[in-house]
Amino acid sequence: MINFEYHSPTKVIFGKDTETKVGEEVKAWGGHKVMVVYGSGHVKKTGLLDRVHKSLTDAGLSYVDLGGVVPNPLLGLVKEGTRIAKAEGVDFLLAVGGGSVIDTAKGIGYSLANDFELEELLMKRKTTDKIAPIGSVLTIAAAGSETSNSMVITIEDGGLKRSYNHDCARPKFAIMNPELTYTLPAYQTASGASDIMMHTMERYFTNTPNVELVDRIAEGILVSVREAAKAAIKNSEDYEARATLMWAGSLSHNGLTGTGRVTDFATHKLEHELGGMFNVAHGAGLCAVWGSWARYVYKTNPARFAQFAVKVFDVPENFHDLEATALAGIEAWENWCHQIGMPISMAELGIDPTDAQVEDMAEKCMQVGGGSIGFFQPLYKDDVIKIYQNAR
Questions:
Q1: Which helix (H) or strand (E) element contains residue 242?
Q2: pTM of whole model > 0.85?
């Protein structure tokens, strides 16, 4: 286990009807004028937005709404939200939705607190530790942005999906009512569960030795999500399954399962270029490329892949052939993806990149990674091209 720092200050308020507490939470963190950020009209149809408004009003707070956030959230809306927030004197951002909504709020928060454009952060030309305060009411178990230090925004010019990570972006509080996820379509539930799995797996696949404690934590999350996803898709109002997914989403991406080890995140970088170019659902995009990445790199450390197979997917261990066990684990992951309706190739995802597009995505990966991506096995441009090609 290597040295690490772990900081996860977000206050979690978990359970039924907890959204009614949002006003008192915002007030406790010093908010006066709130920007309520959300996505589609779904939060209006379910009455959630009205309940949030009432809670804010009951706490003596004023608010302004910003709707229209889309999956793979756009820089353009961040800029529009920033303009409105400045004009209205907003001092607190409240995200009501999933990761895209929370990341949009984070983008506005950074823009309010700094005197440069957000793309300066996204393109790694500047850094900052300043952001306006943010809270969230979670409606999708997926990205983990409600407790993470991460923000991912798509820059429309060039289709660049880029991130910025800093602990200042961890929300002040996260309200999590699993019942708010009952009305999610099965595809969104599955895509979210896949993202949770991948956030954990990006940290699990490491070459750092002596990390058994955190391995057990990660394996527990992975097994729990594996089963909860199937249960929630079978019965959308299975409270315990929904609760497991919601809490696992935060645990998978608040940094816990990355402590004491070198993490990878090559698959996320591969998907970010897919998402930027083709606007695919993030979790589904991860599923479409992970098997190709895994088969490309598993020989670097077949024992780690064999452990994943045995501990997470109950694959019988072949003590005479670790590679066979490792490959069986990759296949078991892909079988699980199909069980919940997720793709395991770009073709199943519904996209068919040209050779020129594949090279463009690989080149953008190199730009983001400074010449390579990943740490389990560092990947260079030719490696990335082969992984994309094998994922077709």
A1: helix 239-253
A2: yes
